[in-house]
Amino acid sequence: MAVTFVVSTNSAEILQDNFLASPCLGNSHPHEILIQKDFRSAAASYNDAIGKSSNDVMVFAHQDMVFPSAWLSDLDRAIMILEKDDPNWGVLGCYGMTMENQGKGYIYTHGLGILGAPFEHPAPVQTLDEIVLILKKSSGLKFDERLPHFHFYGSDICLTAAKRGMKSYAISAFCVHNSQLNYVLPAEFYDCYKILKRIWKDALPIQTTCIRVTPFDFQMRVRQLKAPYLKYVRHKAIGARRAQGGLRLLEQIEKAAPNSITDETNLQPSSTKP
Q: Do the beta carbons of residue 246 and residue 18 sit within 8 Å?
């Protein structure tokens, strides 16, 4: 199955060091890769790519993702299961949250370690993290360009799919997010939070991987109040910086703990922005 990978990038070095170094893209392959630059938002970038795509299945990924050699086989297996059980599926991803704040997926994210464990059947979720989003061009789904910047577009498209009667699923397809773990989030994050809340006011509460969107904004206000303390007193605005060499990081994970997992019941929501 040929797929189209879409990556929005603002750093040639990060792109080359991570996504383009992915083993699943080694040697010759039938897949299309669209590198998107200079877009004002993820939604604008990804909608532009939908119009360009030569394949029906599209994988939208962050530039600091690294996909192992087995990743495409894992994706193919998940789609085969869904084509039998739910052929009208909407959006797939590698990590997501249920409305009850349960994390579903199997990934490594730098600074947090391995989240989740291998599982067989795709798991229904309310929202998916933006690190990896998968949809079919033929589904007609588009990203909402009312969302500026690069936050919450994954939650939004999952909610759009749900409104159309299409479910979103986390799939078991292990991959590495070589991220910078930010404890203090930028103003753009909160701008997008408010816009998402306004668009989907009738769907609240919305559980994302980094915050719960609610009518009274409790988690958002707590985060905003903690930010100055973390930044200026604790000097802990950044929890972990991106590792040098995404492929090297993947190889270290596979060598050190090929079967290591974290119990999903102990997972905590976290920001996984690039």
A: yes
Residue type, 124: P
Concatenate the DSSP letters of all residues of 133-183 into one string: EEEEGGG-----TTS-BTSSHHHHHHHHHHHTT--EEE-----EE---EES
How far CA 103 is from CA of 127, 167, 225, 262, in Å, comes to 10, 16, 25, 11
The H or E element spanning position 8 is strand 4-9
58 membership: H or E segment, kind and range = strand 57-61
Q: What is the pLDDT of residues 149-187, one digit of tens each?
A: 999 999 999 999 999 999 999 999 999 999 999 999 999
Helix or strand or coil: residue 247?
Answer: helix
Q: Under a CB-based contact definition with an 8 Å cutoff, are residues 188 and 82 in contact?
A: no
Q: Is 151 left (phi over 0), alpha (psi -120 to 50) or beta?
A: beta
User: Measuring CA to CA, which residue among 80, 58, 125, 137 is closest to residue 98?
Assistant: 125
Rounded to a whole number of angstroms, the distance between the first and last alpha carbons of the chain is: 28
Instruction: Return the half-sphere exposure (C-beta side, CA atoms, 13 A cut-off) of residue 78.
Output: 29
Helix ranges restricted to H, the chain? 12-17, 42-52, 71-85, 153-163, 187-199, 218-228, 246-256
Identify residue 26 by its one-letter amino acid code: G
- Determine the Cα–Cα distance for residues 65 and 179; give it in Å rounded to an integer: 8
- Domain spanning 4-178+241-266: which CATH class is it, in words? alpha beta
Sort 202 into a burial class: Cβ within 10 Å, 0-12 / 13-18 / 19+.
exposed
pLDDT digits (tens, 9 = 90+) for 131-151: 999 999 999 999 999 999 999
